[in-house]
Amino acid sequence: MAPNGSINSRSTRVAIIGAGPAGLLLGQLLTVAGIDNIVIEQRSPEYVLGRIRAGILECVTVEALKRAGVDGRLREEGLVHHGIELSFGGERHRIDFHALIGSDVTVYGQTEVTRDLMAARQASGVPTVYEAEDVSLHDFDSNRPRVCYRKDGVEHEVVCDYIAGCDGFHGVSRASVPEPSKRIFERVYPFGWLGILSETPPVADELIYASHERGFALCSMRSKTRSRYYVQVPSTEKPEDWSDARFWDELRHRLDPAAAEALVTGPSIEKSIAPLRSFVCEPMRYGRLFLAGDAAHIVPPTGAKGLNLAASDVLYLADGLIAHYQHDDSHELDMYSERCLRRVWKAERFSWWMTSLLHRFPDADAFAHRIQQAELDYLVGSEAACRSLAENYVGLPR
Ligand code: APR
Ligand code: PHB
Q1: Residue 54: CB within 6 Å of ligand 1?
Q2: How many CB atoms lie within 10 A of CB 238?
Q3: Which domains, ranges and CATH numbers included, belong to the chain?
Q4: 3-class SS at 285?
Q5: Considering every ligand atom, which ligand is closest to the CA of 81?
Q6: Residue 224, CA distances (Å) to 121, 202, 203, 359 in order
Q7: Is residue 18 in contact with ligand 1, taking CB distance under 6 Å?
């Protein structure tokens, strides 16, 4: 330990801020490629693993986890889904990804992805700092960036070549970029999703996205015995005001009769409300600081794109860093922001569209409702429209 008042200093190639899926996946891809890195996280591992997030993986994400050497449990426990169902007007309509585009998605919780990445990182013995306080970024406009933090009362400094800001929407990385250098694009929706997790079998084999006059609902799952359900609620709602019974009643109301009948209810093991937001920060690179995942962009969860976009950013960044260190070629790093943003904006568009299609907007008039109904009717009646949904949902090519 450094003597009182002094700073404990170390150096590495890449300092990664945040141990969410973006930071941990990047760390693993770099470690596999032999590139020194450190992960600096402000919370404890237990806190990070306590967050319940989405659970749909695109093939690109599954491939990234394979490259990182963490696809073992995912292959065993992940549920491969060949389609989704849309429920409206009392009926369900299946969108068959497999038949339409020959592709699928894997249901495997983000919490489990994070757990697997944490275990692999621990096994490889690379440095990870949890419960780092007052993390701050310095000199990323120079060729000697630094990250400072305090741990157990001792000040630390990491001198590095590059900083990867993987610290989520509320992190310090994006906030460290001077205002005039960044441009923000944002839409906040006037509702959130109230979600519960329950130890009950899922109501159907595939996910059901329901549009109802009382609002949107989603039936998802984590396994064959554990379900994840959501209902759209006004942004002003509090989870405490929602007993389990009230939640199940509301969900049942919003489903088609067959699903409502089949729904198995039980005590919730988690209940929370997530706001819905679309957000992009441009560019995604500032000198030697790269933003990745939720630090750079947020999508409403309707298209299940948040984690997948984070994985896609991280793949571009890992490849750029590997080309730089192994072949002295910085072209991919120079293209990082542009490449990510092209994909990010397409996922933003899709997530915004799915959200607009399926939710009730408080300010929508009768005309807007009819347009929404017509769009749903068109969608399920048109193979071209179904294919468009399918190719976006399973993930556009990189
Ligand atoms: N210093 C260090 N770590 C920080 C700081 C900070 N100042 N601020 C936040 N963090 C940590 C958070 O505690 C969190 O563990 O950064 C991590 C960011 O993780 P996520 O929020 O999960 O973001 P990301 O890794 O980009 O994951 C992508 O996919 O399904 C979506 O939104 C969902 O989290 C998900 C995202
Ligand atoms: C989830 O399982 O939590 C989930 C699934 C699909 C979504 C959003 C969330 O679109």
Answers
A1: yes
A2: 9
A3: 7-79+106-185+277-353 (3.50.50.60), 189-276+361-394 (3.30.9.10)
A4: strand
A5: 2
A6: 29, 6, 10, 27
A7: yes
Model pLDDT for residues 330-362, shown as the tens digit of each residue: 999 999 999 999 999 999 999 999 999 999 999
**Does the beta carbon of 17 sit less than 6 angstroms from any atom of ligand 1?**
yes
- In this structure, the residues whose C-beta lies within 6 A of any atom of ligand 2 are 54-56, 207, 218, 220, 228, 301-302, 304
- Residue-wise pLDDT for 244-283, tens only, equals 999 999 999 999 999 999 999 999 999 999 999 999 999 9
Selecting among 209, 229, 230, 336, the annotated active-site residue is 209
* Structural contact between residues 270 and 52, judged by C-beta atoms closer than 8 angstroms: yes
* CB-CB contact of 105 with 56 (8 Å): yes
Q: Average pLDDT per run of 10 along the chain, which is 398 residues long?
A: 73 98 98 98 96 91 97 97 98 98 96 97 97 98 97 97 98 98 98 98 98 98 96 97 98 98 97 97 98 98 97 98 98 98 98 98 96 98 98 95
Number of DSSP helices (H) and strands (E) in the chain, helices first: 13, 21
Kindly give the distance from the C-alpha atom of residue 56 to the centroid of ligand 2, in angstroms, as a whole number.
Answer: 6
- Using the atom order of ligand 1, give the atom closest to the CA of residue 307: 29
Does residue 131 sit in helix, strand or coil?
A: coil
d(CA 155, CA 63): 38
